[in-house]
């Protein structure tokens, strides 16, 4: 082999090595993305299998109501107490949501939770429903930890009405019946009456058999909320949880729904999460939360009398906002009247 051929051979070998190395780097980069996806999938799978394992736990599927005795959960009454509860969401372990939170919702009374977004109000409801477990501390009903209760039957004694009700593309009757699958016709109509829904239902084309459309598109916001309330009441729950149930409604719809809520809360242990303080002025006890802790508590009157308090500041701000909104409404009405007069 000549010197020139040998030189060309060396160049070819170098090019082959460089190309092979570049190819390996490309594959290595792809493997990195693959292993990242595999790691994420493994984490998701662990969560799924954990949920499946929980479904097989005796606390969910056993017919025994209590772990230690056979006391009927259907007769459950008593105070709901959060005792130094701390909580961190599994998906956000770097963020602590609740910090040594303690509060009591007295039996047969209405307890309100207020505070800025993200302060832990809705988390309290999720913990009481046992969607999650506290990181530390405990939640009790009448002095007994809620972990002593059968999950399924515990939730059967809890009615929940959220800000955005979930309705299915079936009849009004079926949507209410989801609250209690073996409910009779009389029970469903009674629940609708308690929720201020019976009258408008009877005016629908097919009354209780009227289809509401996907997510209740055929109904107004106030009508959807009253159907959701009827669904919560049809099982006659001992506990009622209201998570900003009227915050998305206009003033007229809010008044109708609020009347139904006030009636439903009587004689029930109720926890209300509210943005508009006007909706919880009659609550027996109000807790003001901030950064996952209780910073103030009392009735509406005592909290309003606390100079420089958080509750007083929120109430004052909302009063100013309402005045501004009323002024805007009056201005809009005046402009509309003036335009009508010009046309005539």
Quick take:
This protein is of the alpha/beta class. The chain is 46% helix and 17% strand.
Topology:
Elements: H1 3-55, H2 58-61, E1 80-88, E2 96-105, E3 110-114, H3 121-128, E4 136-141, E5 144-145, H4 151-156, E6 158-161, H5 172-177, H6 185-194, H7 198-202, H8 221-233, E7 239-243, H9 251-265, E8 269-273, E9 285-290, E10 293-298, H10 300-304, H11 310-343
Parallel strand pairs: 3-8, 3-9, 6-7, 7-8
Antiparallel strand pairs: 1-2, 1-4, 4-5, 9-10
Helix pairs in contact: 6-8, 8-9
Describe the structure.
A hairpin with a 2-residue loop joins strand 9 and strand 10. The protein folds into 2 domains: 1-56; 73-307, 3-Layer(aba) Sandwich (Rossmann fold), CATH 3.40.50. Residues 58-73 have low confidence and may be disordered. The chain has 344 residues and is of the alpha/beta class. The protein is 46% helix and 17% strand. The protein has helices at 3-55, 58-61, 121-128, 151-156, 172-177, 185-194, 198-202, 221-233, 251-265, 300-304, 310-343; strands at 80-88, 96-105, 110-114, 136-141, 144-145, 158-161, 239-243, 269-273, 285-290, 293-298. It is globular and about 90 Å long. Helix 8 (221-233) runs parallel beside helix 9. The protein has a 6-stranded mixed beta sheet with strand order 6-7-8-3-9-10. Strands 2-1-4-5 form a 4-stranded antiparallel beta sheet, covered by helices on one side.
């Amino acid at each position: 082999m000549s010197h020139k051929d040998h030189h060309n051979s060396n160049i070819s070998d170098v090019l082959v090595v460089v190309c092979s190395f570049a190819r390996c780097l490309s594959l290595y980069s792809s493997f990195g993305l693959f292993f990242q996806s595999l790691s994420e999938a493994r984490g998701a799978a662990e969560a799924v299998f954990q949920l499946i394992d929980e479904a097989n736990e005796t606390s969910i599927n056993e017919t025994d109501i209590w772990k230690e005795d056979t006391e009927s959960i259907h007769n459950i009454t008593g105070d709901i107490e959060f005792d130094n509860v701390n909580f961190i969401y599994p998906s956000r372990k770097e963020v602590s949501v609740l910090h040594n939170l303690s509060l009591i919702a007295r039996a047969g009374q209405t307890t309100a939770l207020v505070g800025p977004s993200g302060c832990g109000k809705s988390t309290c409801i999720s913990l009481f429903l046992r969607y999650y477990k506290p990181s530390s501390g405990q939640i009790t009903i009448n002095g007994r930890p809620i972990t002593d209760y059968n999950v399924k039957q515990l939730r059967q004694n809890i009615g929940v009405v959220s800000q955005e009700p979930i309705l299915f593309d079936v009849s009004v009757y079926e949507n209410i019946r989801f609250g209690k699958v073996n409910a009779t016709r009389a029970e469903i109509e009674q629940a609708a009456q308690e929720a201020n829904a019976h009258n408008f239902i009877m005016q629908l084309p097919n009354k209780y058999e009227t289809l509401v459309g996907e997510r209740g598109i055929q109904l107004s916001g106030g009508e959807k909320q009253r159907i959701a309330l009827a669904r919560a009441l049809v099982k006659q729950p001992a506990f009622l949880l209201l998570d900003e149930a009227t915050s998305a409604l206009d003033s007229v719809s809010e008044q109708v729904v609020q009347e139904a809520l006030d009636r439903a809360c009587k004689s029930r242990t109720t926890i209300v999460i509210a943005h508009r303080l006007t909706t919880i002025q009659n609550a027996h006890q109000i807790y003001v939360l901030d950064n996952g802790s209780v910073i103030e508590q009392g009735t509406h009157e005592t909290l309003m009398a606390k100079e420089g308090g958080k509750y007083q500041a929120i109430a004052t701000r909302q009063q100013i906002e309402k005045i501004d909104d009323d002024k805007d409404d009056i201005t809009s009405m005046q402009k509309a009247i003036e335009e009508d007069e010009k046309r005539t």
